[in-house]
Design goal:
The chain is an all-alpha fold. The chain contains 12 helices and no strands.
């Protein structure tokens, strides 16, 4: 076997998790601003008002968040007076506009709002996801090559879907906290914005107060609001991503021949990851919009009863095809480099660990 075909079968789960956690840490910090942009655009389309420089919400919202609607009387025309503010001061118009307004109105550091949640999510999530994908892929390839060789090309699709499902269900409450932290502006000056724990506590507390006689499972079920939409997004994302990434990176590495090195492994995996991640992000954008809308829902009974299908229909009714692909630009811009960073860093660390073991 050539050096370009890196064997990692003797690496343990702990070594794989270490590699994945480092990759997740790096990716979460680099791409978080684009995640904030995407979430703000999707939340705005769902009806979340973003008060601008005039501190007044200037646009209509739909029925999704009734407690956050503005008083329409504020913007009614009065003889001899101008409206209290221009819609442009608070409505986001695109990726660059979100970046500009977040920096100018909230401060540069708010582009990393929710980074602690991103790290709290990414490290265990990717630490579960990537090693499980490797393990599932290796075992499935051995089985299919022996008995079902025609199924071998589909192994990355199945392995990626299974691994992502397990990671998603395990770490979902942190994902819920991150979306809420990124979607809502914190307006109290001098008061530190709520972190992951306080955000989740804010979701659970009203349910505890309103349902004192319910079981613990029923009370905390709210923390998995939107899990169906998350799985509907992440499972196809993983299937598309890995079924594109594996043949692409193997083709690149095969062209390198026997001269594989850290730089070639890094380059091959990063390029393949960017292409595969971008394709998967674009294809699954409607489910990402649905997931965001369900996670920021303020009506708790509605949040528990709404389905992904109903949410998608509602988005289509409110915004049509454009509504289903809200935030596509920042999502693709974030997902492509993020997958490239995670996969390339992960594979380089694995390569280094494997190379070190081979020298011992």
């Amino acid at each position: 076997m050539s050096k370009s075909q890196i064997s990692d079968e003797n690496l343990g789960f702990g070594e794989r998790s270490f590699s994945a956690a480092g990759a997740a840490f790096l990716s979460a910090i680099i791409v978080n601003p684009l995640d904030v942009v995407k979430t703000r655009l999707q939340a705005q389309a769902a009806g979340v008002p973003y008060d601008g420089l005039c501190q007044t919400a200037c646009f209509n919202t739909n029925a999704m968040l009734p407690d956050m609607k503005y008083d329409s009387l504020l913007n009614h025309a009065v003889v001899g007076k101008q409206p209290r503010c221009s819609p442009d001061c608070s409505r986001y118009k695109g990726t660059l506009d979100v970046l500009y307004k977040v920096v100018s109105q909230e401060g540069f550091t708010k582009l990393w709002r929710g980074t602690n949640a991103s790290l709290a999510l990414a490290i265990p999530s990717v630490g579960i996801y990537m090693p499980l994908y490797d393990i599932f892929r290796n075992h499935m390839e051995v089985l299919t090559r022996q008995d079902f060789p025609n199924l071998t090309p589909y192994v990355p699709l199945v392995a990626g879907s299974l691994a992502r499902s397990i990671a998603c269900v395990t770490c979902y409450p942190i994902e819920l906290a991150r979306t809420r932290m990124q979607a809502f502006k914190h307006s109290q000056a001098g008061v530190k914005p709520p972190g992951v724990w306080n955000t989740l506590n804010g979701v659970v507390s009203p349910m505890q107060n309103a349902n004192n006689h319910q079981s613990l499972v029923q009370r905390y079920r709210i923390l998995w609001t939107g899990l169906g939409a998350q799985l509907a997004r992440d499972v196809p994302f993983s299937a598309i991503c890995w079924s594109s990434l594996e043949p692409l990176r193997r083709r690149i590495l095969s062209r390198i021949g026997d001269e594989a090195s850290v730089s070639s492994v890094l380059g091959a995996n990063f390029c393949a990851g960017v292409v595969a991640g971008s394709l998967a992000a674009a294809a699954t954008c409607p489910f990402d919009v649905a997931r965001t809308r369900r996670q920021i829902e303020k009506d708790r009974m509605r949040a528990l009863t709404m389905t992904t299908r109903q949410t998608l229909i509602e988005i289509w009714r409110d915004g049509g095809l454009k509504g289903l692909f809200t935030g596509l630009g920042p999502r693709v811009s974030r997902a492509g480099p993020s997958v490239g960073i995670v996969v390339s860093f992960y594979e380089v660390v694995k390569y280094s660990l494997q190379y070190r073991k081979s020298k011992v």
